# Entry
Amino acid sequence: MRSLVAAALAITLLACTQGSSVTAPRNSAIRPSFDRHHAESGERPVPPADGRELFRHWTFGDEQFWTDTLHLNEVVETAVSPATALGVGLKVDAERLPPGFLSSADLTRPATTVELLRRDAVVGVEARVTRDGHIARLGITCALCHSTVDNSVTRGIGRRVDGLPNSELNVGAIVALSPALPASAKAVFNSWGPGKYDAEFNRDGINAPVVIPPALGLRGVARETYTAEGPISYWNAYVAVTQMHGRGDFSDPALGIAIDQTPDLVTPVLPALRRYQLGLRTPAPTASSFDPAAAERGEALFSGKANCARCHIPTQHFTDVNVSSNGQPTLHAPAEVCTDPVRAGRLKNHAYRTTPLRALLRHPPYFHDGSAATLADVVKHYDQCMSLGLDATQQADLVEFLKTR
# Structure
């Protein structure tokens, strides 16, 4: 079956690249990995000053985990073809490739994946490839989960789009490829599915993955995570140190975490990384993606009968987390919003933040657990939870308004 899928994909790519408008830009030459100097000389790697480069390419030294502990470099080199990689949701940056590369490449061979990595074309994965075609070091970056491509060549291949979640990325299945993991751990990771990740499993052992959130549209929002643990740099540090397994410092007594590593490759880059993420703009909806008249009626319902604006305050970036009470952000108990309590109970606030409404059409499913497949499901959920009494037409109008966010 896999060979048939790979063959079909190769045919699709051949057809698409022959007629594609995507061409390799002048900067499509191979860009050295930021970890290469460190790996070869033993000296501390120097991070880029540019936030975009950090977001896309800085590994925080996490090769120590993905290469030395999980040995994923060996797995990728010997068993992961481009067809397999695309099948678990990895994305390919077409602008890193020379014209005609995809149409002539054998997408069933792991060696082609190695070449894509050598050319820095696999979004969110950094690798140092030796002259004889071996992956000496492999690590991941923020872009693995929080970037995608526009599919301008074919599905999974195109121009990078930073900030939107990779809803097709099956992180669990990728990690489960490691030969260093026991069968019990692999079963947990394989249960997550595309677009979900559990950032606490390695801390508390509870298997309850959540939807990978967007990393754009965050300017002006006080707390960025589902449960409002802290501002954006808190979350960046938590993920870089405890999930990506980069070399850095992270401490939170409430969670029982105190990690101090030398050299600290995380803390010094947090300000530049934050500036880039806050500068990522929410993509505007296309004119054909919603009904303007229905959206206008839905906006009136949003602030009127449905009273969504009580929590999704339009003047506060469509959230009430910025509104503090006794110095604490406004949060909501799981029962108040009729949602699963497990996620909130695992973290220190035991409540949920009102999620800002940003690029909603671009990142289904919805709610932290992905329990709402569509915006219509979201509206239906709150109509029942809050006893709003919206009829079918009103629910549809409200959906059209949400599409404009």
Notes: The chain has two domains: 2-279, 287-319+355-402. The CA atoms of residues 333 and 351 lie 5 Å apart. The two ends are 41 Å apart (CA to CA).
